[in-house]
Design brief:
mainly alpha, Glycerol uptake facilitator protein, 7 helices, 73% helix
């Protein structure tokens, strides 16, 4: 169990470092072009997801997401007593990834986000993004399990663009992103 928890924490940390770090780099290099910054952020996030799932999947299942962990437990893929360990590792990893990204870009380790992310449209966007993510995982896992890393990475890349929330689809990301712009 310890090995799986470490894999979940490390994978989630690298995911958040990729999300936040590519967001910072995209903003710095895009000279105010928000679409280019978002494009850079989505490509980096999707690529990171594929590689992280391929790397950590054999160890922990590469959930990196409390919603995925809960869904997996609901289907008998993970024991319920392991869920708090996974979720705790994912949340800790998410904050570690934000801290790492901030340190790499000479920013304060944590600071309150100034982006307003609330309201019905944001909530519904996250519902759609998460429902889609779980559908992709279950559909691919059942019929083509080797495609899961690629399907997840490309789905999240696309969902950045078709949801008003930029598709966090992940409660650990939502929590940790509150400590970053």
């Amino acid at each position: 169990m310890a090995r799986r928890a470490v894999a979940e924490a490390l994978g989630t940390a690298f995911l958040l470092a990729a999300v936040v770090g590519s967001g910072i780099m995209g903003e710095r290099l895009s000279e105010g072009n928000v679409a280019i910054a978002l494009l850079a952020n989505t490509i980096a996030t999707g690529a990171a997801l594929v590689t992280l799932i391929l790397t950590f999947g054999p160890i922990s299942g590469a959930h990196f997401n409390p919603a995925v962990t809960l869904a997996d437990a609901s289907q008998g893929g993970l024991r319920w007593r392991e869920v708090p360990i996974y979720v705790g590792a994912q949340i800790a990893g998410a904050f570690a990834g934000v801290a790492a990204a901030h340190l790499m870009f000479s920013q304060p380790v944590f600071f309150a986000s100034r982006h307003v992310r609330n309201g019905g449209a944001q909530f519904f966007s996250e519902f759609v993004a998460t429902f889609g993510l779980l559908s992709i995982i279950w559909g691919c896992a059942r019929l083509r399990s080797t495609a899961v890393p690629f399907a997840v990475g490309t789905y999240i890349t696309a969902a950045y663009w078709f949801t008003a929330s930029t598709s966090f689809a992940n409660p650990a990301v939502t929590l940790a992103r509150a400590a970053s712009d």
